[in-house]
UniProtKB/TrEMBL annotation:
Superkingdom to which the source organism belongs: Bacteria
Regulation of its function: Allosterically activated by GTP.
Record family assignment: Belongs to the UPRTase family.
EC number from the UniProt entry: 2.4.2.9
KW Glycosyltransferase (keyword) present: yes
GO MF annotations, alphabetized: GTP binding; magnesium ion binding; uracil phosphoribosyltransferase activity
Protein name: Uracil phosphoribosyltransferase
Positions with a binding annotation for uracil: 194, 199-201
HAMAP family: Upp_B (MF_01218_B)
Cofactor note: Binds 1 Mg(2+) ion per subunit. The magnesium is bound as Mg-PRPP.
Origin organism lineage: Bacteria, Bacillati, Bacillota, Bacilli, Bacillales
A GO CC annotation given for this chain: cytoplasm
Pathway(s) this gene product operates in, as recorded in its UniProt entry: Pyrimidine metabolism; UMP biosynthesis via salvage pathway; UMP from uracil: step 1/1
Amino acid sequence: MTKVRVMDHPLIQHKLGYIRDKHTSTKEFRELVDEVGMLMAYEVTRELSLEDVTVETPIGPTTAKRLSGKKICLVPILRAGLGMTEGIHKLIPSARVGHIGLYRDPETLEAVEYYAKFPSDIEERDILVIDPMLATGASAVEAITAIKKRGATKLTFICLIAAPEGVKALEEAHPDVDIYIGALDDSLDENSYIVPGLGDAGDRLFGTK
């Protein structure tokens, strides 16, 4: 059963306020998205399993903890997903990074895969799918479908801001995927932009607006 978790941590909410602000510069926007990605990853990884290991401190031997179980792979949805990936990678430096690119067919309006590159052992990894926005849900649904076709079975979706329509679409298509959200907004407008949202995340990250 899907778990939908909206982050209520004060630091995440504080930084999201600046991310939403249209006066925030491209540099500041990019830095803030990176920081929030890291903060969200801290919560997303809360349930990772640990194992005991013996280490030598400067004083003597002790039992410490190390991550155990499946390895992690980060998969940003191009291009906006790249903005959150570095922050998450800083927290989990041993994670591999795959990529998936999608474009929207102008006639069918469906998401179409144009690029995909993953680790060869993707079926053995916990996959964190990353995209700042979950609007209609079409890109997230298609990306996760494509990743599952490569053999992955344990996936989590992470985004800064979501619309209820996107959450519903993702839940219905992939009920086994947990969804972590920085903020759940009101709705979509007639152009499928999240309201109030933050505008186009990719344009604001890379200064192409």
